[in-house]
Amino acid sequence: MDTVPEGFVRLAEVVPDAILEIRYYSTYNFVGDRIDGYERPTALLTAEAAHSLKAASDNMMVQGYRLKIYDAYRPQRAVAHFMKWADDLSDTRMKPFFYPNLDKSALFKRGYLVAKSGHSRGSTVDLTLFDMTTGKEVDMGGAFDRFGAESHPDWCGNPETGEYTGGTKHQDGAISAEQFHNRMTLRAAMMHHGFQPLKEEWWHFTLAGEPYPETYFDFPVK
Known about the structure:
Blueprint: E1 8-10, H1 11-14, E2 19-20, E3 44-46, H2 47-62, E4 65-71, H3 76-87, H4 95-98, H5 106-109, E5 124-131, E6 136-137, E7 157-158, E8 163-164, H6 177-192, E9 195-198, E10 201-207
Parallel strand pairs: 2-4
Antiparallel strand pairs: 1-3, 4-5, 5-6, 5-10, 7-8, 9-10
């Protein structure tokens, strides 16, 4: 078995209840290919982030949910793969699924893709909730890695108060009160256990006080 770098752990060993669906190991992602640096469909995190995530998982399990993980630590080489893909404006294979309302050229300009990702520091995770009663993902009103304002936590509501403001001003792509509430359920659990949200993505959380705030790692996921 490959050795995990010092300071990191295999997420499945710390949070065995989590479901792993590592999208960048597959071809079902916004690029359409397996991403460089993802050598196994597994997830790595710093020990500190993993133990905080375990607390959030335990919280959700009591409520009948499991955490479903799409991405955790991301090698810098994967980010370079994203940048190379973004430069090829002719490759829009996955546009209908992940950025139907945006030109590919706008993804960097609007901050949906960046040259340095917090994921590469090892304490950021992308995830959703899985309902153990229905056996399905919880309906968040939009898919993981869908680029656009409709993925922002404040879409159709106020994430600071949890108030749903409706779809009146968001007639294109409005989400329901239940979908907004589902996003807020995930957000509340993650923030309660030490993670900070991102304003552009309802699924993205970074551990507050992360142990390597200035280090961007590049070892592969394996």
